[in-house]
């Protein structure tokens, strides 16, 4: 029995960022679902009990519910969150990490850094 391909939810209001990350994750053997807003992602998450991505890549600044708001609503779900942002404001990184984010990446980020962060988030066992 083969293991299902892990699905990563990518939540960013910039469609070109969503497309680029989806292609990047696919090239690394991962599937991705993209959402244009935190509200769209949470609608899917709450309305479809079987929908549980292995990881969420989340833009910090979006219209409507921002990334920190989405992270707060996911608290207790056990789903790892990786933040991506073009606006690295003082204190926000600390707030995101203190709330449980596994990584905080500044755009533009290196492709390998994102793949590494997603891989580690989905398999948090430390290297032997």
Folded structure, characterized:
- It is a single chain.
- This protein has 128 residues and is α/β, with parallel strands linked by helices.
- The protein is 39% helix and 19% strand.
- The protein has a single domain (7-121), classed as Response regulator (Rossmann fold), CATH 3.40.50.
- It is built from 5 helices and 5 strands; from the N terminus they run E-H-E-H-E-H-E-H-E-H.
- The protein has a 5-stranded parallel β-sheet, with helices on both faces.
- Helix 3 links the parallel strand 3 and strand 4 (81-85).
- It starts with 6 loop residues before the first strand and ends in a 6-residue tail after the last helix.
**The CATH C-level class name:** Alpha Beta
Low-confidence stretches are none
Structural class: alpha/beta
Radius of gyration: 14 Å
Number of strands: 5
Shape: globular
- The sequence of SSEs as H and E is EHEHEHEHEH
CATH architecture: 3-Layer(aba) Sandwich
Helical content class: 25-40%
Physical arrangement of strands within the biggest beta sheet: 2-1-3-4-5
**CATH-assigned homologous superfamily:** Response regulator
- Mean pLDDT over all positions: 91
């Amino acid at each position: 029995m083969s293991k299902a391909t892990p699905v990563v939810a990518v939540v960013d209001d910039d469609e070109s960022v969503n497309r680029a990350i989806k292609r990047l994750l696919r090239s690394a053997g991962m599937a991705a679902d993209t959402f244009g807003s935190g509200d769209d992602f949470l609608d899917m998450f709450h309305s479809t009990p079987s929908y549980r991505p292995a990881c969420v890549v989340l833009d910090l600044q979006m219209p409507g519910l921002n990334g920190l708001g989405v992270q707060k609503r996911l608290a207790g779900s056990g789903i790892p969150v990786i933040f991506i942002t073009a606006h690295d404001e003082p204190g926000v990184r600390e707030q995101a990490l203190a709330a449980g984010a596994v990584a905080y990446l500044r755009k533009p980020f290196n492709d390998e850094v994102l793949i590494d962060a997603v891989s580690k988030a989905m398999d948090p066992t430390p290297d032997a």
